[in-house]
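It is worth pausing here to work through a concrete case rather than discussing structure prediction in the abstract. The textbook approach is simple: state the sequence, then state the predicted structure, then interpret. We follow exactly that order.
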Amino acid sequence: MAVREADVRLAVSAEQLPVRKSGLRRFVKAFFSRPVVLVCVAVLAVAVVTAIFAHLIAPYDPNDQNLAESLKQPSAEHWLGTDMLGRDVLSRVVYGTRISLAVGFVVVFIAGVLGMSLGLLSGYVGGWVDTVLMRVMDAMIAVPMIVLAMALGAVLGGGIVNVILSLGIAIVPTYARLMRGQVLAVKHSDFVVAGTLIGASALRNMLVHVFPNCVSPLIVLMTMNLGTAILAEAGLSFLGLGIDPPDPSWGSMVNDGYRYLLSNPLISLAPGVAIMAVVLSCNIIGDALRDALDPRLRN
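Step two, the predicted structure:
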């Protein structure tokens, strides 16, 4: 009888134990622990949808000029007014979303793949390979990213392809240095040594054992660098080293409208607010990803 009572008590206590949450649920809970993250995700989602369906959302062609309607104030026909060439500001902001996000995502992808590959190779192989690669990365990272991008942009010229190449090359060192540090912390772990002992090749060890255990902080960096790339593209376009006119770019729109800030502030204000909203959202989402992916910060 006593044994049965003990079994009942154990069963009841087992039922009262909290059910262990799945990894995905813990990640989602940690990621959305702050309400502002949900707002930022919504802002970025709206920007992505706007970029994809810009041709359906924009009321006018962004490059259509009508000098008779230049510098018009906001109205029912032009919700944000027109610029100095009579182009609809709202349409140019909408199409500028497509260019800015396309540049941001492609730059982050190119820089991430190239930088992580160099950092993985440098940290795992070591020796003279590590020395040569890291000295090159040190030389590049010694120059501020936007200055290096400006120099490359001046050499390569304007246009979306050259802007992507300039920014991608300028951001590579951040990924390479971070990946190398992660690899150096992981490559002597027991599971990597065990893979070597059972005959796994260096390439298999790097791709199967080392890389998956180093990628979490790099995902966070890619999210934050998305905002950095968008802001850098806007800066280059503002200086005339970015997207060639008449293609709409948020940076070039700010440059076009700063002379009319007192009479028609929306020409510069609208793209400026768009830049601020998207870049801030990327940074906050990256910060939330860091909290969610790092077990030490989940609580």
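Step three, interpretation. Residues 6-20 have pLDDT under 50 and may be disordered. The domain at 23-57+87-297 is CATH 1.10.3720.10 (MetI-like fold).
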